[in-house]
Amino acid sequence: MKIAQVFFLFFCVQIGFGQQLHFEGEAEVFGLVSNEETLPFWLYTNTSTAVAPETNFSGILGAKLVYAYENVIIEAGATGFYRNGVADEVQRRDLYASFQNTWLRATLGAKERATVLYGLSTTNKNILWSQNARPLPGLILEANDPLKISETFAVDWGIAHYSLNDDRFVDNTRIHYKRLGLITTFNERNKLTVQLQHFAQWGGTSPVEGELPSDFEAFFDVFLAKKRPLVTQDIIYNNALGNHLGSFLLEYELKTSMGTVSLFHEHIFEDGSGTRWANFPDGVWGLFYQPTNGKFINAVLYEYVDTAKQSGIGGGSGIDNYFSNNLYRSGWTYERNIIGIPFILADPDLLITDSNNPIFNNRVKAHHIGVSGHFKGVAWMVKTSFVSNLGTYRVPFEPTMRNVHNYASAAYATQKFGTFTILGGLDFSNYGNTNVGGGLGYSYSFK
User: What's the pTM value of the predicted model, to 2 decimals?
Assistant: First the structure.
């Protein structure tokens, strides 16, 4: 209570000196239907679970308070949603406080990551951290903008600690995260970005192995991905401590008189074979184009997604088995939702034991196309994904599951009465019936 009073007094004093404090809020509702028990893929995927596969109604309400003074911005926000078709119908999406200045941004709590590439990407341009699960709670310190070290070079960085506070096989699993990127600006037209990001699941309590290492020495080993034998009741894990995942991002951007073209590749790795690129060409390969005069079309995206190689099926470090782990058996999920690329699939109803895991499809090949634009005040978007699901190396799909996921939306923003949206989806599969769905949405922003 005393802390709250101090902050209230602080804000009152600052406002008295003519500083800026403003409030923003947004409300959004969707009504959705389909001819099957679940909605078409892109109607619920990458929505931060605000829409579930079985949802017919979703409502989102959020607000934030922003205080700005010179180069400092302090912000606090909360967003919650209700959606039917799930056990926990009401949940938070965002609940956070943040601080930023010219070189640092610190965020405590859970906050949805910003949408990039106009929302056209299958992964939101992060193969390991899409918008397919709710935002993770934790603390992240990162560069507010890339730190310029010369006219040519700039450095991006971030380090975070998150907690997986859901119901999972290893209770209270922790996540260590860091990234480091180098941006090279050759001239006004050419830019190259190289970035490494690293996640590690560590600590927690296993129902089989008991308390897992979580002291400072363990964190140091996790930070460096240091090899450290872990002796359990039945197995000796002679690997890096924890469950490690990472990706390399290579991106080249070219600006021309006709528009901006970006070529990028996200290379995924989960062990030494991946860091040696033995799993090449696994990852996401992308081409993004923004026309200079985007009167009708403002963005075009093509992505090729491939997770089928997995360093092969030989001995040693083959069969990478993405997003799965023998010790952290819930895998790379949060509340049974895949955290990364949504084409990898997990069974949300599986009772996880010490001899199974929920990931049943992680060998995928997909071609994805997305286009967005404006026409007479209407913002529109179309997406199509041609996906071949191969299952896993140990349990392959016979025959291959072939899906086509289609999506379209159109939104009209009025000056006073909010934004009205119509959206639809159409899925085809050789494993099931044609799935047709759609819905209506309305959103209103206020200050």
Answer: 0.92
